[in-house]
Every structure is written in C-alpha cells, then in structure tokens.
Amino acid sequence: MGLTSAKVTISGAKTSEQLELLVDTGSIYTWVSRDTLSRIGPRPLGRRSFRTIEGGEIVRDVGEATVELAGERATRIVVYAEPSDVQVLGVDSLEGLGLEVDPTTRRLKKVEAFAAY
Fold first, then answer.
1. Domains of the chain in sequence order
2. What pTM was estimated for this model as a whole?
C-alpha cells in the first residue's frame, strides 16, 4: 500500500494555497516550503531545533498558519521547510483538525470522539 497524501489549504495574512502534502504521523508539525509560506503571509515567530531521522539536528523557523482539510479548519504551527526538507502534514495538524489515519485503508478519517480528560 502506498503513502498517504492529502490536499491541504494553507492560509496566511496575504493569501491561501492548496498543496498536496505527504501525511507523516512521525512528524509533530506540518512542514511547508519557505517560498510558499512567504507568499501566503504568516510571519516566522521563532526558531526550533529538530532531530532528523539520521540523528542530526537542524534549526528551522516556525510560524502559525490556518490549515484546512476535510471541511475542518484550525490555526496550527508550521515549519518553514528548506529545499532539502520534505513538505509534510504532521500529527499536530491532524489532531487539531480532528483527523486520523485509518490503519487499514491508510486514508484520513474524522476522529469519532475526542478524549474528555
């Protein structure tokens, strides 16, 4: 079975763009290219360190943007991806939108109920 991807609309102060992002449940945040985020309009709010799959460390700008998918909309943290980075939809955005990956079909589905505690 192939990888899961999703058509996601990312919005900022200037405009919105629809992107095809790889769904990565191993990534906390959503990563979008710096060029795209610069056009859309969120401003970097700071920098964070990230551990790579190879065990190295990288530092990237982060900001906030509106993420829309499957009729849901939420403001989430986005990472300003550099050309060597992969653009992905991370778990923070999935949870904020009330979505999860169905382990059988590998498709996104709405969470049936949120934890109340």
1. 5-98 (2.40.70.10)
2. 0.91
